[in-house]
Write a structure and sequence with these properties.
It is built from 8 helices and 7 strands. Strand 1 and strand 2 form a beta hairpin. The longest helix has 16 residues. The two termini are 28 Å apart. The protein has a 4-stranded mixed β-sheet with strand order 5-4-3-6. A 3-stranded antiparallel β-sheet has the order 1-2-7. It is 51% helix and 20% strand. With 178 residues, it is of the alpha+beta class. About 12% of the residues have low confidence.
Length: 178
Amino acid sequence: MLGESKGKRRLPIIIGGFEAQAIAIELEKMTPSRPLTHDLFKSFSEAFNVTVKEVIIYNLVEGIFFAKLICDNGEKEVEIDTRTSDAIAIAVRFACPIYTFEFILSSAGIVLEDEAATAGEPATTTDEPALAERKEEETDIRKKSTEELKELLNKALSEEQYERASQIRDELNNRKKS
């Protein structure tokens, strides 16, 4: 979840487990026994005096974000296309800013209810029927076939229902483990 530096909107980006782990390891300042791919990228870049100045999430097409690294070796600046999840993992390692465009935040950005309350906006009250409905939906997910879940996942992503999509994804992942 990326957030505006001077705003309340958040940009939810669904990423794979490996990238999430790579980001978490760096954020927690943990040192793995062997370098991860993103650590290797940083070491390689530093060995050749290349820095990553910034990351730009420049497009959103059918629920897929597109990103690029802006790299500089002191003589020239180069843009490198990358998966957004890798770009974020690299940005964390280089402590560089991550930028995006207003049209992306307008279409995919969200304002979290908890943050709205802490920002002085009226807090939403707990809606007991809605809470019961969410629990019923979670139970409902477990009853669906894998094919039905895949269809629901695609629908949730196309409708930008990222929380619902992550619940469905988690259920699919749990089934793969079993």
